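Continued from yesterday's entry.
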Amino acid sequence: MIDPMVFKTSRELARSKLDKDNAMNSFGYWIDVENKWERYDKPAELIDFLSIHRTHAHKLNEFIADAGELSPEESEWMKQYIQLYTNVSRLLATTGNTGDLRHDLLETLVSWRLIKQYYPESCNILDFGAGAARYGVMSYLDHPNTTYTALDATLAAYTLQNMVLSYLDILQGDESLFEYLDYEALGRPLPDLASSSFHRTHIPTWVAKDLLVPKTQDVVVLSHVHGELSKEDFLRMVDFIDISLNDEGIVFVRSELTWGDTRDYWNTVDLHGLELVEELGKLGLLPIHTESLGGYLTTVFAKQDSQHFKNACAKEQTDECVLWELKHSREITLYAARQYTRKHLGLLAKSGQPALIVGNDNPLFEQFDGQSVAQNSSENAVLNETALGQLRQGDSELSELVAGNDHVVVLSEQCRSYANAMKIEADLSQHYDCQFAIRRCYPFYGVLILSKQYLLETDSHFDSPIFHINDLK
């Protein structure tokens, strides 16, 4: 386990070589204004980070729906994943229990499912801002000899990654982990990573430029990280992609590309506001796939001459825009929002299940073929947008309509805010004594779909919290 002083001394030495302003803004987690990732008093406090994506709990049901039923292979990975992180938590503290692992498990399984569409077999992975090293665990479970490299610059994350990767090293039994800080602390000469046989490599961000082996990575993972960095660290991240990604590789981005106001995050820091799409475009990397999964955008980039790009070009286009011709983050977000809205309204229409529709006079009704959904509904269950006010106030005349339909579709500017969409759901649940299993809303278009039941089969393992392997049904 990494000693906090070893980590901090190494980082401060790296910062001392930079000018004052650059040093202050380098090698940290920019939006960690509460310093949660930078301090802990005892190892047990690190256990909480094993289930960090509980912060996305308001989108859990959407993730369960998007994951669908797990394959036999994925079900086995799930069991091994839970057991592995349970064991890691026991190494940190015998009294420690993980939080609900469903959120992080779903993040990992669904993301890995998509990565495997590009690399069905093993691949070399660079994970920038690696969190609890989830992608390192998945690469081990899928192909133990996969080469995985984790980069980070925050104390808690780096320490936890070291624990997880060391545990994998013990499981594999072949001393296949390179931990930079171990070599630095003991003053030992560094091995030649280009010719080494390490399966897992752990490197602090501040030495990555010198240690990354050029053009060796098949996949660079940026999971919930690129918008949360300082400008200096964001540009370092882009530089690392340029150094390490091979010409046939992909960049896998798991988070929104478009951010709101970059000023005064928590009245403490300003976000960098640089566009990832533009920066990757300068490297010749273009978007070849984008979709909302589990409530967050997931986008894949590849070089124009790569086979992955050619494969994308060969697919039928289903939008008025060609994805890889889009140059700005907002354009890609709107593209993904259109695809998302068409997909889920289409699934509702195909199900044949009736829905209460509010907003048939909204232009979005025609744009997204609301009529295909309305054809399954009774005439009195298709209302204009002004009815939304009555609906939210608990109009007794609408009570029968809410009770008699398993789905409510709202097309309104009020749904362009995810917070507002949640308030609309809360109003309906309160006034009409009903619960919705899933909320579908992409804020860039004012469409909200509330469903009392899932349209497609889901995996029953996720019906209740998972703290331990014994919690699996």
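--- second protein ---
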Amino acid sequence: MDSRKKQIAIGMAIIVFFFICLGGIAAAAYLPGFSGEVGRLYLAMVTSPFLMETTLACLALTLLLGINGWRRMREGDDWVTLDDQGRPLGVSERSTTDKQSATKG
């Protein structure tokens, strides 16, 4: 499976999981007794406008930070050490001059 299809599958799985949880909370509201009362309370909290917006904003921020952390672990550190002339250390002189000539012309 290529990278793009894998990313789409992961995103779809997260969305499906969220809606299954939301459906489970809605189904719990119809249970008899105390568990139904708790289900109705959770359903009211999840679907009230202020709490729903706040919850979705927190969820989006958490997902954003989680995906960024996962990407940084996968791609490695972004830290680059420069020499006294501003060139990255470990890069040969020839590749630096090739890049400079390519940008000029």
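The chain is about 75% helix and 0% strand. The helical segments are 3-28, 34-47, 49-75, 93-104. Will compare against the first tomorrow.
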